[in-house]
Write a structure and sequence with these properties.
32% helix; TIM Barrel; 8 helices; 332 residues; alpha/beta; two-stranded antiparallel ribbon
Amino acid sequence: MFRRVVVFTYTSLDDSHPQPLWLGTILAGVSLGVSRLTKASGLPTCGDAPIPSPEPPNYAERRCTDRGRDATPRFVEHPRDMARIETLARRYPLVAHGVGLSIASAAMFDLDYVAQLARWRRRFGLCWISEHLAAVRVSADGVVDHHTGVPLPLAWDEELLSLVTARARQAIDVLGCDLLLENGVVFTPVPEPDMGEAEFLNRLTRESPCRLLLDLHNLFTNSINLSVDTGVFLRDLDLTAVAEIHIAGGNEVGGFYFDSHAGACPPQVWELLDRVTPDTPGLRGITFEFHESYFPQLTATGLQRELLRAGAVWRATRRGPDVATGLPAGDR
């Protein structure tokens, strides 16, 4: 019986910012997006799967370091931790989620990085890879591969659509699996776009083989900061293209609300999840994301509560067979 999938998250910055490879766990179609796994002994469970107890990041346990495009070797794996992933791959289906592909950057598209993802995809049997529809890598001050630190606002125009659709096709050809792109948070939207975000996403999935990762907390964040009408956005979005959903909590700092993954989901995010899941026939998983630094406030009990609630939504709305096992909904 399908109970658990593992997610590992990768990032890629410039040479001066090597990044770790993190792990999380999916429980019965519901993913737990945390920084790393710890010993499961004595932890609360969801079904027959233990809930990991996150700890502060231990940078001695990086799974892999991307040393930058000019480095040789570029990708330095940490054998002990990569062996852990291999062990998990023998037991569970795996998927990957990242923030460093920067598929919308005009300055460059890192196909060597995509090729490395493809090697991991073959090695670990990844079911799919998801990324942010974002531009975070730019050319600046003589540095070809400078990282902005936060995603830049995107212009929803024909030029960007042509760029991203072509790159999505390239990436999928190299990866050999589905690529999901995630809607993001916007703080300073580009004025006078050619189209709205929902229309852009619809055309992207029609004109390329990529699918959508719908982040409902990102949408909620935009509704707070930019007065985006969540109802109109979801009405206009082609929900049949959604393959994964993210939910999370956040907090307010300096008059802005942030997608900080700071604990439990707001009630409005649960309402959005209840609304959209019946209309997403291609949905393959729900991910609850939280940052491990907030674990003392969330607690294991709170974490279990979020996963159980998300799991209940999953079970109530899945009518077809499970993507990993082929079992009908009632047998999961």
